[in-house]
TrEMBL record:
It comes from the Archaea. The keyword Lipid metabolism does not apply. Residues 26-74 form the Alcohol dehydrogenase-like N-terminal domain. One of its GO terms (biological process) is small molecule metabolic process. Keywords: NADP, Oxidoreductase. Transmembrane segments: none annotated. GO terms for molecular function: NADPH binding; oxidoreductase activity, acting on NAD(P)H; oxidoreductase activity, acting on the CH-OH group of donors, NAD or NADP as acceptor. The keyword Cytoplasm does not apply. It comes from Candidatus Methanobinarius endosymbioticus. SUPFAM superfamilies: GroES-like. Signal peptide: none annotated. This is Alcohol dehydrogenase-like N-terminal domain-containing protein.
Length: 81
């Protein structure tokens, strides 16, 4: 899976897409195939290093639109095509 993974605070031009390992979904969570995402204000603060309680590495881009790829044991359903 690919994601913007912050290893440390950086400037916007230094953001890079990284390959990350997503082996197992936590109970009650879902895996979403993302079609679009946004980086919100709190993530901009995190990216700049202005969020002292945030630990790195950290995936950013939590506002998203997409389709459920794996519903795990949640109440959501994978879309049938």
């Amino acid at each position: 899976m690919e994601a913007f993974m912050l290893k440390k605070p950086c400037k916007a031009q230094n953001l890079k897409i990284n390959e990350i390992n997503c082996q197992k979904i936590k109970p009650g969570h879902v895996l979403v195939k993302i079609k679009a995402f946004g980086i919100n204000r709190s993530e901009i603060y995190t990216k700049r290093g202005d969020s002292p309680n945030v630990k790195f590495p950290r995936v950013i881009g939590i506002e998203l639109a997409g389709e459920i790829f794996d519903a795990s044991n949640s109440n959501f359903k994978k879309e049938k095509k």
